[in-house]
């Protein structure tokens, strides 16, 4: 069965025929065959078998769509607004318009800003606030953060496109650059967004809420960090209309900022590790450990698995799981899968 | 050079000699050689070459130690406490003891609870609060969360040990169980911790702050979510001493709770994907794409790489990076690394 293909020693070396052993080594595996055009999937033009190519692809693919998250947010706000509107007489503090106050209270609660300029007074209103702060936190943590990440990624592409407009580089190369420096670009995008939001918030607080510039900035800081002492807050009708949109965006922005900061930190550490793993000297013990099929030599694929394990990108459980499947597919038990194995497997079915 | 080892076809199949092709297939790669006792590193008894075995191992190894995080926290609190003590006359609200209030204000600010029972009044005090809330957030996000994760993992081991005390299972098997259900156990541990903290907080608020049970629970909810409306807060000396420890622990606990919830969600999705990748039918096109060294058949290692890529655990960049290193090591360009390659590489140096 597979024995004839196992005998084909020539193809393995065929690519090397024209190369000599020199001090400057050329690349032999110029384009690994196992990468079926992985750049293409950025534009959704990818129709192939390999559904999830990138390392973060699982995240990206399972991420709730922006539309889905918006819809959920609207439903959440409508429910919250209705509930708090119904108990509006049991909420005390500075009031403007009934519905606006309910919406504002809902936003201030779900983002955990909690100024305290409006506070629930009755038992039902208090329990309602408890329910909404927990569900709001879960909603922000599990949905809105991911939706924001998606938006930032879109913005990031626009940003890089704008930067590259003059230098005529191909889209493919541009996408490669984004892929390589994804986290850095995201971080940059979020910093810009934060600066815009902080400035906007300060201006509105000065112009509309008539605060002095220091108080306005202090209120902005207290809000975006969700601190919300409540000594300064939005008390006018227009201020609260603005606050509804601004609080939600700016608090999520700052949370994403810290997330990307942690990601950058992590990535730099991982790069250090990868460098260490790749440059350290291989020993005979390593060689023996990496030799998956016990043939006395380490093939390219075996080497890759061994090194990726050392880098912590995959673990033994992952490998064991796939190995089990491999043994099922290797019907003739030759230690390799060939076309005949596939045919055999189908005929068994 | 490596040609003699390439001719050794027998060793590849040697393990299969005693097996027949049957309907029930036995495992051939019983214990993959590339796993050098990965269970051992739980107890730090691991001294070997493979520094980072688990999938989260990079995280685990680079995580700041608990002692380091505690030290940083103490420094942060001393600095914060000193600063706020110095501006204590510029902070208005319910006051008890000078130093205690400064510490309490520092904790309420860094965790972004921000009751507003103590608020900065002067410009310097306001700017100081802004500085401390940002640095506090960064500190909690980048350090304390990870330290908490470390603590939870320790607790988790104790928990499983306690459960397994009666059934006499080996430590190794127990560790395997923890590894497999790591996130679930963490989640369970944090839920227990949260319940204890919520109960404790409610009791103290009833007994010390003389709140009724509903108000106490409402204040607990408003605090652990960092909402902090501030209509109910800690105003007695003993209440604030308790609050200093309790607020820090409970807010971090709730944040970890949501983190683990998201991790569980992610893991379940990944398991679905892994199942899909493993059960879908291999085609001739897959076979060709997976054949890394162009020898017409897919070896076990090649199959593992192809499938792990499909699962999104590794990507082409990872593989390409290691392949480059492989080519450097394969001095005789045989397509495999053998002992002679290693010797040759050393003699070149």
Topology:
The structure is a homodimer of 349-residue chains.
Chain A: H1 3-7, H2 10-14, H3 57-62, H4 66-86, E1 91-93, H5 98-110, E2 118-120, H6 123-163, H7 171-180, H8 182-207, H9 213-224, H10 237-279, H11 284-290, E3 298-299, H12 300-310, H13 316-329, E4 336-337, H14 339-348
Antiparallel strand pairs in A: 1-2
Task: Give a verbal description of the structure.
2 copies of one chain form a homodimer. With 349 residues, the first copy, chain A, is mostly helical. The first copy, chain A, has 2 domains: 62-269, Orthogonal Bundle (Helix Hairpins), CATH 1.10.287; 281-343, no CATH class. Helices cover 64% and strands 3% of the residues of chain A. The first copy, chain A, contains 14 helices and 4 strands. The first copy, chain A, has a two-stranded antiparallel sheet. In chain A, helix 4 packs antiparallel against helix 6 (123-163) and helix 8 packs antiparallel against helix 10. The first copy, chain A, is elongated, with a radius of gyration of 29 Å. The two termini of chain A are 19 Å apart. Chains A and B meet through helix 1, helix 2, helix 3, helix 6 and helix 9 of A and helix 1, helix 2, helix 3, helix 6 and helix 9 of B. Strand 3 (298-299) of chain A pairs antiparallel with strand 4 of chain B, so a sheet runs across the interface. Chains A, B: Its main location: membrane.
Features:
349 residues; mainly alpha; 14 helices; two-stranded antiparallel ribbon; homodimer; 2 domains; Helix Hairpins
CATH topology-level name of the largest domain in chain A: Helix Hairpins
> What sequence of helices (H) and strands (E) makes up the elements of chain A?
HHHHEHEHHHHHHEHHEH
Termini distance of chain A? 19 Å
**What is the level-2 CATH architecture name of the largest domain in chain A?**
Orthogonal Bundle
Q: How many structural units, i.e. domains of chain A?
A: 2
- The number of helical runs of chain A is 14
Query: Biggest chain pair contact, residues each?
Result: A-B, 140 and 140 residues
Helix content of chain A: 55-70%
Looking at how many chains there are and whether they match, the oligomeric state comes to: homodimer
> What is the radius of gyration of chain A computed over CA atoms, rounded to a whole number of angstroms?
29 Å
What structural class is derived from the secondary structure elements of chain A?
mainly alpha
Please state how the strands of the largest beta sheet of chain A are arranged side by side: 1-2
What portion of residues of chain A belong to β-strands? under 5%
Q: How many strands, what sense, and barrel or not for the largest sheet of chain A? A: 2 strands, antiparallel
Q: Write down how many β-strands of chain A occur, each being a DSSP E stretch of 2 or more residues.
A: 4
Structural shape of chain A? elongated
CATH class of the largest domain in chain A, please?
A: Mainly Alpha
The overall average pLDDT of chain A, rounded, is: 78
Uncertain segments of chain A: 1-61
